[in-house]
Amino acid sequence: MIKQIAKETVITCLFGDPVAQSVSPYMYGYFAKRTGIEYYSHLKIRVPKEKKGELGEAILAAKTLGFAGINITVPYKMEVIKELDKVDSRAKTIGAVNAILVKDGKLTGYNTDGLGALAAMENRLRKMTQKDKVVVFGAGGASRAILGTLLPITKNITVLQRKDDFNLAHSLKKSMKKVNILPLNFENISKSVIRANFVLNATSVGMIPNTRESVILEKLFSEINRKAALRQKFFFDTVYNPYETKFLSLAKKYGAKLCQGLYMMAYQGAASFELWTGKKVAKKDVEVALKILKQKMGVKG
């Protein structure tokens, strides 16, 4: 018989593929220290994308061993829903889960990504208003979470999605009818970015090890800047490792204001930690955690 973890020990984990690039154990360890949890561990567990059937087994193992919670990352934020006993209303509307609470033998799915993204942009850039125009790259789990949070603020949102995976866009349209969805091509990128003031990458493009990739090519950045000054726009990337993606570094070259994905990761992490432990994370502790994460990633300044 498998024994559960002792009650005074809190263990959480991250499921996805890849997970090696994640620095979240440092963040959660700091939150635990600041909230008085003596024995806390956050594990990074790769569930191979080529063996998606193993996700259910991994979830069951975490539940059986008495883990307090689970973070879900790419490519499982939508697929994991079918493995859960319950999904809260926000995550159900979004159609994606990134945080799971394991309690009393039940698995309940939540989504803290959208709130994390909004908090990051409000703290690093500015508050979004109903007049703002937003373009979002991608129609997967991260995109859905962000859209679900932004739609109550502004209806001026365009989503760009690859043609070869446009089934995600059709699925998104069913749950979020007011979103304008276009196939990803040079013309649509150019038109959408020119009219937008917030440009968001919600794909995994540019993540380690593919750090030379960007959803907007350098040549296209130059063309767009000639028609609409990029220095007046706000760029946000959900990818947090590397700290500054190719997408953001190209935008910075033209004077755009940036919000790195690490900020979203920290704010959503604080919300996930509070969900799992019932302990409130102070805003100042999120800021200190960000400094720790930057240090661990070798980021200067």
Helices, by number, come to 11
Largest sheet: 6 strands, mixed
Outline: globular
Q: Provide the CATH superfamily of the largest domain.
A: NAD(P)-binding Rossmann-like Domain
Per CATH, the architecture of the largest domain is 3-Layer(aba) Sandwich
Radius of gyration from the CA trace?
19 Å
What class would the helix/strand composition place it in?
alpha/beta
State the assembly state of the protein chains: single chain
CATH C-level of the largest domain? Alpha Beta
Strand percentage, roughly?
Answer: 15-25%
Name the poorly predicted regions.
Answer: none
- The fold-level CATH name of the largest domain is Rossmann fold
Structurally, the number of domains stands at 2
- The helicity comes to 25-40%
State the end-to-end distance. Answer: 51 Å
Reading side by side through the largest sheet, how are the strands ordered? 2-1-3-5-6-4
Helix and strand run: EHEHEEHEEHEHEHEHEHEHEHH
Number of strands: 12
Q: Mean pLDDT score, rounded?
A: 95
Short description:
The chain has 301 residues and is an alpha/beta fold. It has helices spanning 24-34, 54-64, 89-94, 113-124, 141-150, 167-175, 186-195, 218-227, 246-253, 261-277, 283-296; strands at 9-16, 39-46, 69-72, 86-87, 99-103, 106-110, 134-137, 157-161, 180-183, 198-201, 234-237, 257-259. A six-stranded mixed sheet has the order 2-1-3-5-6-4, sandwiched between helices.
